[in-house]
Amino acid sequence: MTQFSNKYDLEERTAKFAEEIIKLVKSINVDSVNKRIIEQIVGSGGSIGANYCEANEAESKQDFKHKVGICKKETKETKHWLRLLATANPEIKEKLRELYRENQELLLIFSSILKSANKKSL
Fold this sequence. Notes:
Layout: H1 10-26, H2 32-56, H3 61-88, H4 93-121
């Protein structure tokens, strides 16, 4: 299993995901292109877990759905930045593929949570 092995603890899993992004970008040569991408990916990648923590403390069902919706949105944004980071740094493509796969799994999880929460609201 990968470093994201705590499969069912989503708070921990999203925190580990953000940590792996931080570790990776700290190893990248910072030029004008990478600087911008790094700032964006650290922001969106970290925001996924932060918003999930907030969702778990939601004050209402609507608040929960809103926060999970933000998680989904940030996951999609992170996917975009991972792609651009791979273009700018082809030498780390394999590590980025791991992050991309985890990001895709998180996107599917948040989509499923949101779908389930919306069904319960009907």
